[in-house]
Amino acid sequence: MKAKDLDKKFDSGENITRHLDVSKARRPEYEQKRVNVDFPVWMINSLDKEAKRLGIARQALIKMLVSEHIESHA
Q1: What digits encode the pLDDT tens for the residues 44-70?
Q2: What is the domain extent for residue 43?
Q3: What single-letter DSSP state applies at residue 56?
């Protein structure tokens, strides 16, 4: 299929995902990178308590808190 035909289908609102090869698709800046951080025990206990209250994992809570902080200072 030519690009102009794909553009027409997309512009008309047609679902074009079957025409795309997403096997190697990636989202720049969203790749994962492991980071090790040491926290004092009292902080881990507080994180675990809050994570349990919210029903999420400790790692999810840490990501959420860091993200909120970064966004509020951007």
Answers
A1: 999 999 999 999 999 999 999 999 999
A2: 3-27+35-72
A3: S
